[in-house]
């Protein structure tokens, strides 16, 4: 019996369950036994698995989190980690592995492949949307909607008090969540590190732009959406400095982990289902060492070596951000 392993790794993302479901149902129909590996790569080291049946994945397409749990596995990054993990995979009698995760998870897969010769296929699952070779990652659009829901609420109170708000969203080192949620909520400014060449100059321009807008009452409230890790100062400190410069009451809010939870939106369920089915198809065709992604609405196969982080100096992102920050020079 062909035993197909599946695991989720790294930050959980809404839609991972939909991918597990699709892989399980498609794999079962191909005649495979589906072995769920618990808690990411840790489940390989600990031989911690569960057999997935159609019943196990019933009613999970609409749930956030991941049925299989997830983790960031330090053991795999140790020198002997990949060799040991390969030994454990042999003990588990697996014939192929599908990994749902982000860039770190794919780097792990590449290391593992040096010692384990069977098919390994990846599916991009992270709210950050920071993986090369795919237009979207599972969880991204849900995270945007969750952030948007909160920012809209912050806008109400900002408007009522005529305050300035600094709202920090996730994205690790990547501005996509800030950009899309910022555009959608009509933010007056969107900040992410991709836009900043010199922080001091950037901040001076920012303070002046805000002062100009509040002085001329261009807006009753002023919302700044900022990606985490964009500046060397924290969001609370940024709010304080804006308040000092403009004389307008300024508050900060960090949205944090709520962005990772909740029921996946339709886009993420559909994407996860399509990617999951294509991943099983790739396994059936004996393919290995690649991520299934989606480009221009088509499923694509991208070798792990060509994935990697999409984050820095993404020209499209920078152009769009400048445009939406009403920078008319570009
Ligand atoms: O990769 C997804 C993500 O949520 C990032 O946006 C964030 O920076 C990071 O994970 C947080 O990681 P952890 O769960 O390890 O604190």
TrEMBL record:
The keyword Hydrolase does not apply. Its cofactor is Mg(2+). It catalyses: beta-D-fructose 6-phosphate + ATP = beta-D-fructose 1,6-bisphosphate + ADP + H(+). Transmembrane segments: none annotated. Signal peptide: none annotated. Pathway: Carbohydrate degradation; glycolysis; D-glyceraldehyde 3-phosphate and glycerone phosphate from D-glucose: step 3/4. It is an enzyme of class 2 (transferase). It comes from the Bacteria. InterPro entries: ATP_PFK, ATP_PFK_prok-type, Phosphofructokinase_dom, PKF_sf. GO terms for cellular component: 6-phosphofructokinase complex. GO terms for molecular function: 6-phosphofructokinase activity; AMP binding; ATP binding; fructose-6-phosphate binding; identical protein binding; metal ion binding; monosaccharide binding. It is found in: Cytoplasm. Keywords: ATP-binding, Cytoplasm, Glycolysis, Kinase, Magnesium, Metal-binding, Nucleotide-binding, Transferase. Residues 3-283 form the Phosphofructokinase domain. Belongs to the phosphofructokinase type A (PFKA) family. This is 6-phosphofructokinase. It comes from Pseudoalteromonas tunicata D2.
């Amino acid at each position: 019996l062909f035993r197909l392993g599946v695991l989720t790794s790294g930050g959980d993302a809404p839609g991972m369950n939909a991918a597990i479901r699709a892989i399980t149902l498609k794999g079962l129909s191909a005649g495979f036994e589906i072995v769920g590996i618990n808690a990411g790569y840790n489940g390989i080291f600990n031989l911690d698995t569960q057999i997935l049946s159609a019943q196990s994945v019933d009613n999970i397409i609409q749930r956030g989190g991941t049925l299989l749990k997830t983790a960031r596995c330090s053991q795999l990054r140790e020198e002997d980690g990949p060799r040991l993990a390969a030994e454990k995979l042999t003990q588990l009698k697996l014939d192929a592995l599908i990994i749902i995760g982000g860039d770190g998870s794919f780097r792990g897969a590449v290391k593992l492949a040096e010692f384990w010769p069977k098919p390994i296929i990846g599916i991009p699952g992270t709210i950050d949307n920071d993986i090369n070779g795919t237009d979207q990652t599972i969880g991204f659009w849900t995270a945007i909607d969750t952030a948007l829901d909160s920012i809209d609420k912050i806008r109400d109170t900002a408007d009522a008090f005529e305050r300035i708000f600094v709202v920090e969203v996730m994205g690790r080192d990547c501005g996509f969540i800030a950009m899309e949620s910022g555009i959608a909520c009509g933010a007056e400014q969107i900040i992410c590190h991709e836009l900043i060449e010199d922080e001091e100059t950037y901040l001076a321009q920012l303070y002046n732009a805000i002062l100009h807008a509040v002085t001329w009452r261009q807006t009753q409230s002023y919302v700044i959406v900022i990606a985490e890790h964009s500046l060397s100062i924290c969001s609370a400190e940024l709010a304080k400095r804006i308040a000092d410069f403009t004389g307008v009451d300024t508050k900060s809010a960090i949205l944090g982990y709520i962005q990772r939870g909740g029921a996946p939106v339709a886009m993420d369920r559909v994407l996860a289902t399509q990617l999951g089915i294509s991943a099983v198809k790739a396994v059936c065709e004996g393919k290995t060492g690649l991520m299934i992604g989606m480009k221009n609405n088509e499923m694509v196969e991208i070798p792990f070596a060509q994935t990697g982080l999409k984050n820095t100096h993404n020209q499209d992102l920078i152009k769009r951000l400048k445009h939406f920050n009403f920078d008319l020079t570009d």
